[in-house]
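Batch manifest, entry 17 of 40.
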Amino acid sequence: MLLKTHKKLWIPLGVVLFLVFVISSIPAIWGAYLLTRGTGVALSGVTGTLWNGRASLASVRMTDQEYSLGQLSWSLSPLSLLTLSPCAQVTTKLPMQQFDGQICAGSGGSVKLRNADVSLPASFAQGKIPVPIQGQLSTHIDELELRGNVLLKLKGNLTWNGARVNTGVNWLDIGSYGAELADNGNNGISAKLFQLAGPVDVNLQIELKAPSGGKVTGELAAQQAFFDTANARDILSMFAQQDRVDETGKTHYRVDLNF
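Output type: structure tokens
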């Protein structure tokens, strides 16, 4: 009876070891296929195995524009193959631009991102901002799920360090800011933006709707001398109205913008 029990244990163990051997021998091009399928990611110079692979150059296409990711490497989770939802720890690296997180293939062609850290220049988001900006964006994503270009889930946070804005006359240092990110339940993004350091107090609620449009509501406040020195009145008049001056001398602007 004991011998039969041992045989029953050895059979599945042998199958697992065989699968590990087979997977470790599969060329990396198959791993590249899993990473690029439906993600907008393109890879070249692929080496290694399905288990651990590397691409000398990676890029991603977003909203009809292609962005370089630099070198990319991945490490596939063996157990995820058994659930038919392969997951890989993926790392990319460029100067001032890095990514490290887990990417999984979900059901129905969806892609899931978990426990990911992203760092990139603020200019990456320039297309969404009406004025030139500089600084460094850092994001931690607890959970993100996409199906094509449709957002299904989002939870994370964002920081904008060394934030600078071009007023049309000069570059203005405005400090550092943070945001809490979530999906709005309708394939859009909801964000709460606040000040971390700097001359401008910020308390804004931002909603980006799908497939387009959105709104920004809340308040900005700073010493009026700062707004005057920055020649910011014309810019503020585009999306905010002066509200009040508080006991500390700060001028508050009410923001209520639809786009």
